[in-house]
Amino acid sequence: MQVTIILHSGGFLIEDGEPHIDVGYFETEGAFDIQVFEDGTQVQPPPNIKLAGDQIEVQHVEADGTTVKTGVNQSASFTQDILKKVDLYERLDCPDFKVGAYDCILRFHSGNFESSDVRPRVFSEHRVADDVLTGTSNITTRSIANEVRVDYDLAKDETLRLGRHGGTDVIWSSSPAEDGSPNVEVKILADESTNEGYYKRALDHKASHYYQPNSHPPPMNGNGFG
């Protein structure tokens, strides 16, 4: 069975040499922050799943209960297509990420990271002091990923789950994989309300201006200048 986590946005807190990837997340204004699909048909997730709070572990769990911690695979498409801070800022003005600003951190110990919905984007310039638009726009010079897909191939009786408190408090889990199990997609949502969080509050701005996307916030890589 294949299970895919689809990240509609996120701050990718990638540290060289670390086997996992942390993704900073801001919750939406809606009643829930995830949608679940089985073979393309939306199913009802557990009610009122909101992700704000403690770190959430994304766990590929083997049949004997062991969590796979083999490290993530950053595909060529992911490393090439994800938005980078230097796409928006000069190197001397590149802001650092403020990890404590996020509503929660999603930690991935495994999975294959791929780019999705790759296209150019338009960002509007705002003044840091008062958020007023300056009238200047920045169109990315290359196509960027507007979503990131994290794929897992589950063997018989394996599951994928999201859990708080080191993963022990499970807030969502796939059914154990069997022959003929449906392919599952779990969409981690973003909306217009999260733009300001991802592009202002979670960045330590060095310049007098910042850039905000004109619609839903695409993911951004937070590894140094990359």
User: Low-confidence parts, pLDDT < 50 over ≥5 residues?
Assistant: none
Helix coverage percent: under 10%
Number of helices: 2
Strand order of the largest sheet: 5-4-16-1-13-10-7
**Overall 3D form:** elongated
- The number of distinct β-strands equals 19
Strand content: 35-45%
What distance separates the N and C termini? Answer: 34 Å
Report the order of strands and helices.
EEEEEEEHEEEEEEEEEHEEE
Structural class: mainly beta
Radius of gyration computed on alpha carbons: 18 Å
Number of domains: 1
Mean pLDDT: 92
Largest sheet features = 7 strands, mixed
List the helices and strands and how they pair.
Layout: E1 2-7, E2 11-13, E3 21-25, E4 34-38, E5 41-43, E6 56-61, E7 73-74, H1 76-81, E8 96-97, E9 104-108, E10 112-119, E11 122-127, E12 133-139, E13 144-153, E14 159-164, E15 169-173, E16 184-188, H2 195-201, E17 203-204, E18 209-213, E19 220-221
Parallel strand pairs: 1-16, 2-19, 6-9, 7-10
Antiparallel strand pairs: 1-13, 2-3, 3-9, 4-5, 4-16, 6-14, 8-17, 10-13, 11-12, 11-18, 14-15
What attributes does this structure have?
226 residues, mainly beta, seven-stranded mixed β-sheet, 2 helices, 19 strands, 6% helix
Description:
With 226 residues, the chain is mainly beta. It has one domain (2-221). The chain has two helices and 19 strands. It has helices at 76-81, 195-201; strands spanning 2-7, 11-13, 21-25, 34-38, 41-43, 56-61, 73-74, 96-97, 104-108, 112-119, 122-127, 133-139, 144-153, 159-164, 169-173, 184-188, 203-204, 209-213, 220-221. The strands form four sheets. Strands 5-4-16-1-13-10-7 form a seven-stranded mixed sheet. A hairpin with a 7-residue loop joins strand 2 and strand 3 (21-25). The mean pLDDT is 92.
